[in-house]
Amino acid sequence: MSDIQYNSGFGNEFTTEALPGALPEGRNAPQKVKYGLYAEQLTGSPFTAPRAGNKRSWLYRIMPSIRQEPFKPYKHKALRSTPFNENTTPNQMRWDPVDIPKTETDFIDGLITMAGGGDAHSWTGLGVHLYAANQSMSLGKRYFYNADGEMLFVPQQGILHIRSEMGILEASPGEIIVIPRGVKFAVDLPDGGSRGYVCENYGAPFMLPDLGPIGANGLANPRDFLYPVAAYEDREGEHELIAKFGGSLWTTALAHSPLDVVAWHGNYAPYKYNLAHFNTINTVSFDHPDPSIFTVLTSPSYPPGTANIDFVIFPPRWMVAEDTFRPPYFHRNIMSEFMGLIYGVYDGKETGGFAPGGCSLHNCMSAHGPDAGVFEKASTAELKPHYIDGTMAFMFESRYIMNPTKYALDSKTLQKDYYKCWETMPRQFDDSGKA
User: Fold this and answer.
1) How many CB atoms lie within 10 A of CB 106?
2) Range of the domain at 397
3) Annotated catalytic residue: which of 288, 331, 368, 386?
4) Is 288 marked active-site?
5) 144-173: per-residue pLDDT in tens?
6) CA separation for the pair 293, 385 (Å, rounded)
7) Other CB atoms within 10 A of residue 192 CB
8) 309 and 232 in one domain?
9) Are residues 14 and 102 in the same domain?
């Protein structure tokens, strides 16, 4: 991984070229571009969006994207887009990890849609997917882009090596990669079998949350976000490009690699982030803070302060609160929460059932919180400072009710007895006040 080069700084304007002088000077689309390249703009926001939120990059490529055959439908067994037809219940749900396939399966065919909310056609909400694959897309000369939303990758097992139009990124478990809407890429798996999570964001692009009273420093620092440098593929021959558009997959044939961008400049590009760089803010007095204090990235919506999606993590951290129930408290929440575990043990589910690679869904106003064993332990523990180590859980939190797919509801990994982790909680009420 050390030989891959990156630029740094969240949302910066970057200039990068793989051949000297490939970037035009003083203009974006001169009459002729050096090396016989084609100038092409990739726009990720409305043209008239305010400057601070205007997303676009100029690409200087060997062949223009228009050089392709017409798309045809591509059937997929488990990838879906909102809205779904299944009825959503207020029940808490949890799933075991999915197995790595035994047959040859690349990232595209290894996608499994678990839940989603909002409407992909209206640029609102999200889709939540798992992936489990064992074959690199390079073996089939396959490429992909998503016109419905940007994709946030959370690997849980195995390295992701992603070749994109703008360059190369790699991520191990504990890191994330975000691919903007419309950017072409391919996923390779250096370790073979790999699995993880994908959040498909139909709404506003992810951004860093405002810090408010925290001040200038804390949470995710812009400098720790890494962007690729230009690296092109000059390859002719048969290639396949798969697109997600309007909730369905489409395929077309290309006579060349679509990752042929020799140079680019702009602020619309893939990026990666190491979750270990997150500067965790926590209480040093009493009470457990709201999980919003652990937000890495947010996709905002109206009204202000309401998230289309918040990407929240629960990393290693010190716990020092006095006279406090320290694990996550019992809660009913207007936001819906899809949770996953990258490694270790989540402190709200220490007695089992929530394994790395697994996931849970607690929808709007559905009660959730620590299981009975964690409640008993935390209620009687001696409150000394201690460090929660060796864990990384995360949450996709959204204003939209998340509807599980039929695939997820019928899956053998669905834990139908999840509710029993609270069944042994005793009645403790004593109106004498002696309890």
Assistant:
1) 23
2) 277-416
3) 288
4) yes
5) 999 999 999 999 999 999 999 999 999 999
6) 20
7) 12
8) no
9) yes
